[in-house]
Every structure is written in structure tokens, then in C-alpha cells.
Amino acid sequence: DIDHVYEALLNTEVDIDELEPDAYLEEKWIKEVVKRSGMKYKYARLAEVKVRENKDVQRQPPADPAALVSRPPVVTIMGHVDHGKTTLLDSLRKTQVAAMEAGGITQHIGAFLVQLPSGEKITFLDTPGHAAFTAMRARGALVTDIIILVVAADDGVMNQTIESIQLAKKSKVPIILAVNKCDKPQADPKRVKEQLLAHDIVCEEYGGDVQAIHVSALKGDNLMELAEATVTLAEVLELKADPSGLMEGTVVESRTDKGKGPVTTAIIQRGTIRRGSTLVAGKTWAKVRFLFDENDRLLSEAGPSSAVQIVGWKELPSAGEEIQEVESEQRAREVVEWREYAEEQDKLKDEQQAIEAKQREHQESYRRERESLAHLSWRQRKAAMYRANKHRMAQRPSERSGDSEQLTVPLIIKGDVDGSVEAILNILESYDAHYQCQMDIVHFGVGDITENDINMAETFSGIIYGFNVEANKPIQQMAAKKSVPVKLHKIIYKLIDDLKEELSSKLPPTI
Ligand code: GDP
Fold first, then answer.
1. DSSP characters for 202-247?
2. Mean pLDDT (the chain, rounded)
3. What's the 295 CA to ligand 1 centre distance in angstroms?
4. Span 405-424, pLDDT tens digits
5. pLDDT tens across 360-399, in order?
6. Ligand 1: which of 78, 82, 159, 188 to mutate, most ligand atoms within 8 Å of CB?
7. Which residue ranges are recorded for the region named Disordered (predicted)?
8. What is the DSSP letter of 65?
9. Atom of ligand 1 nearest to the CA of 184
10. Do the bridges between strand 248-257 and strand 146-152 make them parallel or antiparallel, or are there none, so unpaired?
11. Which of 34, 59, 265, 337 is 20 to 30 A off residue 483, Cα-Cα?
12. Where would I find the beta strands (DSSP E) of 336-489?
């Protein structure tokens, strides 16, 4: 029962940060402990960060090798500006349009499929430039199997050519070289290949394994050779995927289409997408209403490496976002809700960590200050204390009572003689390091409790400790009126015990 759990938790030395619900420790119990122990709000909030069960969809484990079947390569075209990427994509797309029935429309949807006369297929991503590629790589969702590096034969290797090579290397994606604009009289493909040697792109004729195809994107020359080279490389790469089970894919483009409404183009990476499938991507989900290919033909399903247009999103996910199929709409809602929650909590946690770092810093500087004080004379101590008080008073009241100050207990120490006050200070300083909760001696001195002591305590919300001193009636009344605790002791260790208890009660409870 909950009382039992509460007791047990309070008596174990577990950090509240580490509390996570499991079969034995339910969320409601942690909440109850947080409530009962009167933990400070921010700690309670921190505890809550971890108490919700992770409802996200997990990536599926690697498929059974027996279930794997070959899939077409997914290709990205990269290269320097004006070297002919767009022209090459257009020409490749046209090779398909010609093969299609009259009336076929070519439109840009972010990806398209090229089918060779042999029946082999290649999916091209046609997001111009490498912005999309970079965005996807940053999200760790690399869909590209092969990069076709376009270099204009008249221009040669340029800045973005080198950038593309670096990106390919970093992502471990193999390159095929398309030496473009070979129709131009000043074209010098040999020079291009020589230049590339300096960047570790070694073409076959130089003993390397990079295939180089001389093309003219504009005239459509050698495009089939380029496609063949791609298929050959794909065979070497042995690209495979499991077409069964839950679908996984990546958004390559999101847009609002005049006819279809909100639509995304996605590359399927695993499984098969069907009408009626339920998908999640980022913080949105879809019940697939329609699937289209790049020519707007309705599909009933699509398997690995296909580029499909998906209609049915509640809100559009962004390019680069992973798509995962889930069992039900309810599950999709749950995942999205969890992701929203997790994002919120991440933000909260960052804030929390910032607060804690500030607090640690504060305590650390305080500890150092204490340490140095321990070696100081009475007079030096006084001086240090006044400086510290001045600094405190200079802070705005909101800062003073702010989060970073919550764990300090301001103290006023009075004793009958120098020696006793000094002895108490020394003991306190030696204890200080052991407590997360810092003592803050805002005033100390010799003699009975005075009006000034009460005022000090009120200003700093502190506690007055007196050793072998008195507080007369008017002073006691004043203290009561201002709610200033005055604790008088005649035995040092009792005073210290009392103080320790006070500190413990201020600590965020360790459970
Ligand atoms: P991108 O910036 O890499 O997409 O380059 P574009 O495809 O926009 O091409 C830039 C310019 O080069 C355009 O004027 C194209 O017509 C021209 N161009 C592209 N490919 C060829 C080619 O194979 N031969 C010739 N002569 N011009 C080309």
C-alpha cells in the first residue's frame, strides 16, 4: 500500500532524478512521494519528466535475412551550380515520359522512378541542390544509396564539386561520375578526371573503382549508359529490404497540392505502404487515403525504394522526417502525443539543468568562500561577511528569493564571548561542505540578541542562533511579530544538532 511504499522510498538513498517508474514503482507512487515530502515544485517537475512511459515507436530490429529481397537504388544528383543537375534530372525524367502513354504529365514531386528497358529501376531524388540531402543527413535519415556527381567538362572541378565529394565520403555513399556538357567543343573530360584524382575520386581508367560516364544532359547523350552504370553499382552494393511487416520510410518533400491537398512524397525503405495504412512522422500522423506515383497514377501499394505521394496527413511533416507505420490510429495519436510531451519535457529539462548548474556554481563559490574564511581572523571574517551582505543587498529582491537561493539558510550567530562564536563558526564551516543546503552566515557577534539582529534576520529571512546569550521580552515579542526564529542554546553540540536538523528540513528530500 502507498504508506508502505512511501516509507520505503524515503528510507532509500535514491536520487529523485533517478526515479523511474517500473513494475515495482508506479508513477502514482512517485507522485505521492513528491507530494508528501513537500518537495519543491521544481523537483517535483523534474521527477515528472521521467515518470511517463515512453510511448514512441521504436525502430524495428534488422529484418530476417531470409525475408530480404533486392530493391532499386535511390540516387541523388549533386555537383557545382550550373554544371547541369537540373537538366540531367529533366532529361532522365523525359526518358520515362517518352516511354509512357501520351498525356503523361511530368511534375516535380521530389523524386521519380526511371525504368530501364531491361526492367531495372532507379529512384532519383530531384530536390535540387544538396540542401535536402544535407537536411536529411543531419537527421540521420539517409535515403541515398548512390550519388551521381555532375561535373561540367568545360568547367572542371569547382567548390561545390569538392563539397559534394566530402559529403559523399562523410555519408559513405559511393559516387558515379557524370562528366556533363560533353557536347561542347571546349569540353575536356580527361582534365576533369585528372582533377578529381586530387580529391581521391579515382576513375576506373586510373585503376580506381569510380565509373565515369561522358554525357550531355542537354542533348540526352549517354543517359542510358549512366543509368546502366547506376544499376551495375547497385548490384555490387546488394541493396535489399524486407517488403513485409510495418512500413518505414522518409519524407523527401511536403507540399500542398492544388488537387490533392496536403501531400508528401516519401521514399519507402522497408515494408509496403497501402491505402488505409496508419503512419506517424515527426509530430503528425496519417491515415493513408490515397497513394500516387510520380505520374499521379493511383497506387494501391508501394514497396521498398519506391517514391510515393501520400495523401491523408493531419498536418504536413517536414522533409527528412522518418515515417513509421503503426498498428492503429489510437497508437498513432499516442505516439504523436508522446512526442509533443517529450519535446516539452526536453525543454523543461534543459531549463532545469540550467537552474541546477547555476545552483552548483553558487554553492561552489560559496564553499570556496567558506574555506577561505576558515583561515581568517575575526576581523577578516567580519569584513568578508559585510562584503557578501552588501553584494546580497545589491541583488534585486526577486533574485534573492529566486531559485538559486532557495537552498541556503541565512544564519545569525550570537555568542557570549569571541571564543564561543569563533568555535561555532569553525564547526559550521566544517559541516558546510557536507550539506547540499548551504548555511549563509549573514551576521555574527558577541552579546545578547538585539533589535539589529532581528532586523537582519528579517531582511534575509534568516534564523538567529544564540549561545549562552539572552533575548529579553521586547526582543522576543519583536521576533514573534516578524516571524523570526530565535533559538537559544547553552550547549554547543545541541545548538549544532538543532542547526543540522534545520538544514536537513530545507534540503530537497532524497528518497
Ligand atoms: P544546375 O545548376 O546544376 O542545375 O545546372 P542546370 O541544369 O540549370 O544547367 C545550367 C546551364 O547549363 C543551363 O543553361 C543548361 O542549359 C546548360 N547545360 C546543362 N547541361 C548541358 C549539356 O550537357 N550541354 C550543354 N551545352 N549545356 C548544358
1. -BGGGTSSB-EEE-BTTTTBTHHHHHHHHHHHHHHHT-EE--SSS-
2. 81
3. 24
4. 446 788 899 999 888 888 88
5. 776 676 666 656 655 566 666 666 666 666 666 666 454 4
6. 82
7. 347-366
8. G
9. 26
10. unpaired
11. 34
12. 408-415, 438-446, 463-467, 486-489
